[in-house]
């Protein structure tokens, strides 16, 4: 869907969702809004909007486009609504546990066997966060973090998943443990944002340092030049120059001082079947974990190298396990010790399948993992 | 107390960690305690956030919401450079007519959309405050207020102020008290001297981003360029002594040295575009049509003028500001038509602003005006229109004159469309469409199509002349703008021995205003008296009682305008000479 089409759909959906009657005619959209949202939108009971700049003013139609005041108001209204919701996920018939484990890289071909100990419905909180990095520019990101308070784990969810395959469940009952969910969710978000925040900070500090160096250089050398020209000159002038320098420095600090903020936008409690499974490897002790049917995220494993808790996984023998990012590829395993890595980019296999490495992104990794299993 | 370098830089060891919003606790406390707004509202919440995410300045966001702004690549490039490379501190030094105001507005809008600018101050010459307010409102949908009282500094986050007013008395302290996200200084060559009150005032403002707009950053010598750059980025051109030693190649300070290096340094802080062939507007051809008033019109004109002069210099000293303004309106209306002045005369004949004797005079004048059923100027207008088959925009300042002309033109068989401030927006759109399609005459008041594209026509008729020359230029600018590829005809109708004749003397014969490029007039008028508007100056001359005094005052003002025009020409050449190397030509 094009950006313009997505914007149009968002605006019309929001208006309808707040109870407005919407009708379209000749590039204009006529809107009748209920009393309760008129002041939020700063509109009369009936008004026209247009997405076409050439039609602004026709019947006093307000333009809706990025940067327009109407869009700002409707975005603000939509962001104040829908801040919590309950939805239910119903697992497909069949062996969803086995399928999910295969997607996690723990299919039977890896020698891992599993036993389902129990399946019960659980409420997983899904938290959405907006991250804002700000100095003299602004960069923002949006994240969905799912949390399993019972397992003490949190993981990032692909935005496309946050609303797919779910059905409304307004009367689903007991709310999840939000305090714990929030704590785990914010910890995960900090971890996921660390690199981006670090890069942003480094860039801001570099600019700040350049500015500070330039300001000091300019004012200090100016002072020296004045003193050299007239050693008995006015001290008041020099004080004034130093005062101006300090004022400029303060201004510069305020301008380039990097800040990183995050806010919780909304919470969705997703009721989903959750399986408690016991995994048996070719050797070593069995591991117990939990697996939900909705995100198919396996809790309870930890990579022996990075200690990450997000798969997909690759058993290493003797009950050891690594995430695919830390697991050596076949080439690396075969490479004699001490030999430097090759800089040559990996070539695709002739059969069109990629190398052993998974693509980035949890959803993509799931797809890649299951694709490999289904291959010839 | 002074800062040290270490104090001025945040510790490199201090890690930056995410700070979570305090309002999160509020959501956690409220969530699930009552039914939610439903799954659709939850989905839309996510979309609202994702849709409004800002990712640096990777792309410009403001264009779709701008109104009546042509999209020119050089403006887009300027905006991107200022945002990404100059970090919001720049001298916008394009030649006149290339759209510095639009560039500044665009940069401001980009910041505003991202929430990086909430408080913005525009400092301009007094004569341009209204124009800036209108442009920000009509093109960028930014509701700026023009500074009226000292309370505005606190209560108006988007403020336009005359720099001369802002730098004085209580305004100065109030302006300095709060930090500004963005400060825009128009006609920034007024900051050429670092010892001036103007320069020190702007330097003393606390601001994050700053744009200095000037087509002529160098007026006398390169020192001025140094002073402008030092306002934005002290040290960008070294210290003053080093700057002179390295980059000034002549004793008079006008010849640059080490030009490639200077150019590189200026590129970090200044954008300057030259008008390429593609951006050279076609010429204007001016037609001056002097009119001899009919005896009845002449008598009325002289009688109204006598009344205005008597009342303006009334010895009683009770003349209020409102009454003076009324007199100016009266004098302007009689210059437009007898129909325009008749209504006002009738109203003033009942007004408590004037004494009984004056009200009697006004009543008599009203009766004289009402007795005149046609104006000679309208006959001249028809004469001109019959000489051409082209579509024409006919401007007048007054609705009553517009209504009279509509009747005259329609009776003569012209297909006329009217356009004025009282029309609802839909009717205005319809009027422009009708003119584009099959109407011959676009008959308009001052509201004549602000920001609308009317370049398909090329003839502008000034049926009357506003005393503010910038208004005249705005009228011409409706058709003489980027996109116009044919010669433009400007027709001025004016009656002999009237204020309008004085205006023509000053603007046409003295400074050839009608041949100037849009924007040049601002620079010329800007060098005149800062505290009084051009209209005030005209009124003061016109109300002098003795004809000889009037002629002498007119001559003085004319001489001042000629000097201003000459100075402008010299300045333009000097800038071209000094800055040629740092300018980029706007390509086709």
Concise summary:
The complex is a heterodimer of chains A (about 375) and B (about 600). Chain A has helices spanning about 5-15, 35-40, 70-80, 95-105, 180-230, 235-255, 330-335, 360-375; strands at about 20-25, 30, 45-50, 60-65, 85-90, 115-135, 140-150, 155, 165-170, 260-280, 285-290, 300, 315, 320-325.
As an assembly, this protein is heterodimer
Largest interface: A-B, 102 and 80 residues
Helix tally of chain B equals 25
**Topology, number of strands of chain A:** 14
Helix content of chain A: 25-40%
User: What integer is the average pLDDT of chain B?
Assistant: 87
**SS element count, helices of chain A:** 8
Low-pLDDT stretches of chain A are: 334-376
Percent strand of chain A equals 25-35%
Helix content of chain B: 40-55%
Which sheet architecture does the biggest sheet of chain B show? Answer: 7 strands, parallel
Radius of gyration of chain B: 28 Å
| Sequence stretches where pLDDT stays below 50 over 5 or more residues of chain B | none
Structural class of chain B: alpha/beta
Description:
The complex is a heterodimer of chains A (376) and B (588). Chain A is of the alpha+beta class and 376 residues long. Among the domains of chain A are: 3-81; 86-195 and 262-325, no CATH class. Chain A has helices at residues 3-17, 35-41, 69-80, 96-103, 178-229, 235-256, 330-334, 362-374, and strands spanning 21-25, 28-32, 46-50, 62-63, 84-89, 113-134, 138-148, 153-157, 166-168, 259-280, 287-292, 298-299, 313-317, 320-323. In chain A, helix 5 (178-229) packs antiparallel against helix 6 (235-256). By secondary structure, chain B is an alpha/beta fold. Chain B has a seven-stranded parallel sheet with strand order 4-5-3-6-7-2-8, with helices on both faces. In chain B, helix 10 links the parallel strand 6 and strand 7. Chain B is globular. The model of chain B has no long low-confidence stretch (mean pLDDT 87). The interface between A and B is large, with 102 and 80 residues. Strand 10 of chain A pairs parallel with strand 1 of chain B, so a sheet runs across the interface.
């Amino acid at each position: 869907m094009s950006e313009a089409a997505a914007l149009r759909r968002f605006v019309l959906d929001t208006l309808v969702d707040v109870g407005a009657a919407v009708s379209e005619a000749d590039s204009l959209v006529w809107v009748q809004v209920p009393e309760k949202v008129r002041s939020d939108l700063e509109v009369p009971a009936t008004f026209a909007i247009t997405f076409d700049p050439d039609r602004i003013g026709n019947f006093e139609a307000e333009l809706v486009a990025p940067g327009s005041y109407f869009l700002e108001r409707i975005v603000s209204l939509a962001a104040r609504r829908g801040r919590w919701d309950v939805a239910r996920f119903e697992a497909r018939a069949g062996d969803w546990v086995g399928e999910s484990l295969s997607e996690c890289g723990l299919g039977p071909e890896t020698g891992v066997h599993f036993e389902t100990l129990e399946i019960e419905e659980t409420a997983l909180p899904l938290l959405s966060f907006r991250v804002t990095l700000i100095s003299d520019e602004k960069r923002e990101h949006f994240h969905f973090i799912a949390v399993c308070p019972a397992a003490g784990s949190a993981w990032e969810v692909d935005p496309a998943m946050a609303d797919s395959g779910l059905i409304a469940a307004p009367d689903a009952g007991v709310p999840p443990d939000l305090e714990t969910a929030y704590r785990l969710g914010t910890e995960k978000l900090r971890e996921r944002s660390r690199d981006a925040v670090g890069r942003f900070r480094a860039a801001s500090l570099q600019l700040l340092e350049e500015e500070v160096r330039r300001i000091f250089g300019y004012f200090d050398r100016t002072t020296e030049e004045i003193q050299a020209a007239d050693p008995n000159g006015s001290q008041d002038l020099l004080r004034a120059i130093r005062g101006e320098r300090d004022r400029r420095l303060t201004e510069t600090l305020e301008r380039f001082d990097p800040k990183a903020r995050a806010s919780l936008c909304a919470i969705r409690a997703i009721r989903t079947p959750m399986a408690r499974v016991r995994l048996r490897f070719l050797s070593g002790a069995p591991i117990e974990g939990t697996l939900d049917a909705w995100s198919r995220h396996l809790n309870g494993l930890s990579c022996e190298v990075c200690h990450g808790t997000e798969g997909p996984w690759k058993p290493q023998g003797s009950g050891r396990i690594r995430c695919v990012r830390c697991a050596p590829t076949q080439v690396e395993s075969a490479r004699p010790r001490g030999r430097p890595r090759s800089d040559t980019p990996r070539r695709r296999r002739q059969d069109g399948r990629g190398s052993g490495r998974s693509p980035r992104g949890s959803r993509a990794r799931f797809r890649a993992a299951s694709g490999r299993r289904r291959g010839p | 107390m002074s800062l040290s370098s270490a104090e001025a830089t945040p510790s490199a060891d201090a890690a930056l960690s995410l700070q979570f919003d305090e309002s999160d606790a509020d959501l956690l406390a409220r969530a699930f305690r009552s039914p939610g707004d439903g799954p659709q509202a939850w989905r839309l919440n996510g979309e609202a956030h994702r849709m409004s995410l800002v990712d640096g300045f990777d792309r410009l966001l403001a264009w779709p919401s701008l109104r009546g702004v042509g999209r020119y690549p050089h403006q887009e490039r300027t905006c991107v450079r200022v945002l990404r490379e100059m970090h919001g501190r720049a001298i916008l030094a394009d030649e006149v007519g290339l759209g510095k105001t639009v560039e500044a507005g665009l940069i401001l809008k980009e910041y505003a959309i991202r929430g990086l600018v909430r408080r913005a101050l525009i400092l301009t010459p007094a004569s341009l405050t209204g124009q800036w307010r209108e442009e920000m409102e009509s093109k960028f949908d930014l509701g700026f207020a023009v500074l009226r009282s000292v309370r505005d500094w606190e209560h108006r986050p988007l403020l336009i102020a005359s720099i001369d007013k802002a730098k004085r008395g209580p305004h100065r302290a109030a302006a300095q008290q709060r930090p500004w996200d963005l400060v825009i200084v128009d006609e920034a060559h007024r900051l050429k001297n670092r010892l001036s009150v103007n320069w020190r005032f702007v330097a003393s403002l606390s601001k994050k981003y700053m744009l200095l707009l000037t087509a002529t950053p160098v007026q006398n010598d390169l020192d001025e360029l140094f002073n402008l750059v030092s306002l934005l980025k002290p040290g960008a051109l070294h210290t003053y002594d080093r700057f002179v030693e390295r980059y000034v190649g002549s004793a008079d300070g006008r010849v640059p040295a080490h030009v490639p290096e200077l150019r590189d340094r200026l590129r970090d802080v200044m954008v300057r575009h030259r008008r390429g062939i593609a951006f050279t507007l076609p010429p204007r051809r001016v037609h001056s049509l002097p009119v001899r008033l009919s005896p009845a019109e002449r008598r009325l004109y002289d009688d109204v003028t006598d009344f205005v002069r008597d009342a303006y210099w009334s010895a009683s000293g009770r003349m209020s500001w409102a009454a003076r303004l009324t007199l100016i309106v009266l004098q302007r209306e009689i210059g437009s038509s007898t129909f325009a002045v008749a209504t006002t005369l009738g109203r003033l004949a009942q007004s408590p602003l004037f004494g009984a004797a004056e009200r009697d005079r006004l009543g008599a004048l009203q009766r004289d005006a009402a007795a005149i059923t046609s104006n000679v100027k309208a006959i001249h207008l028809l004469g001109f229109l019959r000489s051409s088959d082209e579509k024409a925009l006919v401007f007048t300042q007054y609705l009553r004159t517009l209504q009279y002309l509509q009747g005259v033109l329609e009776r003569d068989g012209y297909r006329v469309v009217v356009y004025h401030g009282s029309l609802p927006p839909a009717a205005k759109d319809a009027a422009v469409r009708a003119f584009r399609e099959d109407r011959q005459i676009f008959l308009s008041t001052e509201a004549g199509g602000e920001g609308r594209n009317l370049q398909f026509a090329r003839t502008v008729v000034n049926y009357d002349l506003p005393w503010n020359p910038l208004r005249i230029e705005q009228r011409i600018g409706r058709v003489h703008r980027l996109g116009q590829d044919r010669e433009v005809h400007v027709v001025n109708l004016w009656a002999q021995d009237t204020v309008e004749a004085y205006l023509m003397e000053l603007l046409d014969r003295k400074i050839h205003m009608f041949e100037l490029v849009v924007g040049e007039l601002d620079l010329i008028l800007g060098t005149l008296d800062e505290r009084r508007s051009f209209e005030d100056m005209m009124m003061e001359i016109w109300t002098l009682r003795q004809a000889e005094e009037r002629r002498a005052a007119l001559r003085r003002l004319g001489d001042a305008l000629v000097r201003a025009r000459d100075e402008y020409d010299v300045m333009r050449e000097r800038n071209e000479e000094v800055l040629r190397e740092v300018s980029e030509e706007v390509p086709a």
